[in-house]
Write a structure and sequence with these properties.
CATH topology: Rossmann fold
CATH class: Alpha Beta
Bound molecules: S-adenosylmethionine
CATH architecture: 3-Layer(aba) Sandwich
Low-confidence stretches: 1-10
Number of domains: 1
Mean pLDDT: 93
Helix content: 25-40%
Largest sheet: 7 strands, mixed
Structural class: alpha/beta
Strand order of the largest sheet: 3-2-1-4-5-7-6
Order of helices and strands: HHEHEHEHEHEHEHE
Shape: globular
CATH superfamily: Vaccinia Virus protein VP39
């Protein structure tokens, strides 16, 4: 066999499904080192939608690992495709419910930023209990963040925003902080829609002391 043929045989075929996180036990915390193969800081995008935001951020922050969490299979698949097509080894996708994941599967004090962008607002009063921002969820975010870590919350829905702030403020493990510089943040799919409709975007940032 010539050296050229040897080299051709050595080419690895990329796996288009490599970005999926394989869950073997939904009661066990995730192992970041096993998932990403390194100890880089981890950011989580909860309800990542089509993944435009998290993929863009993964591209511009190659030294950070990103976990996209999305409960709809079609959307989760889109994110996996983005990770493959854009060659993003630092982006992984899990199809799970955000609150469950945060509560049971994130190692304590292991995450640098939790992004919650345009969560479903569930505007009807009888549906408010379906909103992701609930005391237990906020506690799980505080537990997951490492010291100095951040919770970034963005929504177009002012009523949800006003209702959520006291819930987050009540969590003693988080302290309200100044907003981050979002001027260069990639826009999310829903953000584009809301901006086109002229809606006000509300943001809040909380820090783990
Ligand atoms: C309004 S969209 C926003 C998507 C994206 N963050 C954006 O800004 O374009 C809300 C997304 O969160 C997902 N989602 C809603 N509740 C969820 C939950 N409890 N766990 C995981 N994903 C959820 C929905 O499937 C949807 O993709």
């Amino acid at each position: 066999m010539s050296s050229t043929e040897t080299n051709r045989c050595a080419v690895t075929v990329p796996n288009p499904d490599a970005a999926w996180v394989t869950i073997t036990d939904i009661c066990e915390p995730l192992d970041w080192k096993a998932i990403f193969g390194n100890d880089h800081p981890v950011e989580i995008d909860l309800g990542a939608g089509d993944g435009g935001f998290v993929a863009n951020r993964a591209k511009t922050h190659p030294e950070t690992n990103f976990l996209a969490v999305e409960r709809l299979l079609g959307r989760a698949r889109k994110i996996v495709k983005k990770a493959f097509r854009q060659n993003l080894p630092n982006l992984r996708v899990v199809r799970l419910e955000s609150s469950y994941l945060m509560h049971y599967m994130i190692p304590v004090a292991s995450v640098s930023i939790v992004h919650l962008m345009f969560p479903d607002p569930w505007p009807k009063r009888r549906h408010h209990e379906r909103r992701v921002i609930q005391p237990d969820f906020v506690k799980s975010v505080a537990t997951a963040l490492r010291p100095g870590g951040e919770f970034r919350f963005t929504t177009d829905h002012s009523e949800y925003f006003q209702a959520a702030l006291p819930v987050i403020n009540a969590e003693t493990g988080l302290k309200s902080g100044p907003l981050w510089d979002f001027s260069t943040d990639p826009h999310t799919e829903f953000q584009e829609e809301f901006l086109a409709e002229g809606r006000v975007i509300n943001r809040a940032r909380y820090l783990k002391p």
